[in-house]
Design brief:
With about 400 residues, this protein is α/β, with parallel strands linked by helices. Helices cover about 45% and strands about 15% of the residues. The chain is built from 14 helices and 8 strands. α13 links the parallel β7 and β8.
């Protein structure tokens, strides 16, 4: 029995370390990517697990566990706790940088121009331990799913509970242009709708069966469909924004930056690809999704084969004039779409006097917002709702 008790602290040590180490380790493949994405986002829970592990050594100190094993186990748990604390130690600096970027782009008193009723619905702080533990709630909303806007393509509609006239936000999902559906990111859609926006989550055809520009054509078709139904769906067409994540961020910026695009008042991209030619030439290391294969599937060849198509598919190539105000959010630990691309896009936009907010979350990986109440998404959501409110209200 004493031997079994001795195994409890060791087991907790191994579990704690095996999970915590992914806060810093980049994932070499898709199988391990969820660990690399999730570990920093649930750091509060992992801190608790590792603290319990340390406590277990005190509880079971009378067991037959050799002293050297006890000290080794406790040392590994201290290392795990340090890994878990890493995002929290960077929070204040990240928040300060985000505040500076918001103030520079929107004005130092930007929140004063947001209606008081809208400000009252905001998250009060960029990060809350309590929120990390219990989640982010959304009030009841109205919802319609699977509204066909083109043959084989549908959208989801999320509306505030009360009838009225609201800003509209078109949402484009990610999935390497090869997968996904308008049901993705539904927590975000419901959250925004509960705070006074009509959110329209749209679909598009997938690669490699359908290659670019099919996806952009579908997004443009969906945008026109939304505008044609704006009155019916209680959307104010003069107050429209568009948001996307990963491949969806790429398509959202690409659509909004076209010379013939509708006049969006706000564009938001979470970790969206920017320059596909450079991305192909210099892929991330490690590269868990095989980025070059993804781009070949999307475009039908390499930049050598299709140089003009790669340029046409790169939002950064469209930055040659003032564009709609843009919020860019990237993860510093992202090994699918590196933050350097977002920073380069932000600099280009600012060159043409486009109000641009660039937020880099140092500990975050690609798709960090899959953990909706996680450390990174709390911070991203805090600034996203303020950015949208300032420009759409």
């Amino acid at each position: 029995m004493a031997v079994l008790f001795a195994l409890i602290p060791l087991l907790l040590t191994l579990i704690g370390l095996a999970l915590s180490i992914w806060s810093l380790l980049p994932a070499p493949n898709m199988t391990l990517l969820p660990l690399s994405v999730g570990a920093p986002e649930v750091c509060i829970w992992l801190l608790g697990l590792n603290a319990i592990g340390l406590l277990s050594y005190a509880i079971f100190q009378q067991t037959e566990l050799p002293v050297i094993w006890r000290w080794l186990g406790m040392s590994l748990l201290v290392l795990s706790i340090a890994l878990n604390a890493h995002p929290l130690l960077q929070l204040s600096g990240t928040i300060a940088a985000a505040n500076r970027s918001m103030n520079q782009a929107l004005g130092y008193n930007y929140s004063a121009n947001i209606p008081a009723a809208v400000r009252a619905s905001f998250r009060p702080q960029p990060f809350s331990v309590l929120t990390a533990l219990r989640g982010i709630a959304a009030d009841p909303i109205r919802m319609q799913k699977h509204i066909e806007f083109a043959p084989g393509l549908a959208l989801n509609l999320y509306q505030p509970l009360d009838s009225g006239k609201y800003p509209g936000v078109i949402q484009v999902y990610g999935g390497a242009w090869r997968s996904g559906s308008p049901n993705h990111d539904e927590k975000f859609s419901r959250y925004l709708a509960s705070r006074g926006y009509v959110v329209v989550s749209i679909d598009y055809r997938h690669a490699p069966q359908h290659r670019f520009p099919a996806q952009l054509e579908d997004v443009n078709t969906a945008i026109e469909y939304v505008y044609s139904h704006a009155s019916q769906w209680e959307i104010d067409p003069e107050r429209m924004g568009i948001i996307g994540r990963s491949a969806g961020g790429h398509l959202a910026t690409l659509a909004a930056y076209q010379p013939t695009a509708r006049p969006f008042r706000a564009v938001v991209s979470y970790y969206g690809p920017v320059d596909l030619t450079v991305g192909y030439a210099d892929p991330p290391v490690p590269d868990p999704i095989d980025s070059r294969q993804v781009m070949r599937d999307f475009l039908g060849g390499t930049p050598t084969d299709l140089p003009e198509l790669y340029k046409q598919a790169s939002p950064g190539q469209l930055v040659n004039r003032q564009l709609p105000p843009t919020l860019l959010v990237y993860g510093g630990q992202d090994h699918l779409v590196e933050s350097r691309f977002g920073r380069k896009l932000a600099m280009g936009l600012q060159t043409f006097d486009t109000p641009t907010v660039f937020i880099e979350i140092p500990w975050a990986n690609h798709a960090f917002d899959a953990i909706f109440n996680g450390t990174s998404n709390q911070l991203a959501l805090y600034y996203t709702e303020r950015f949208l409110a300032r420009l759409l209200y």
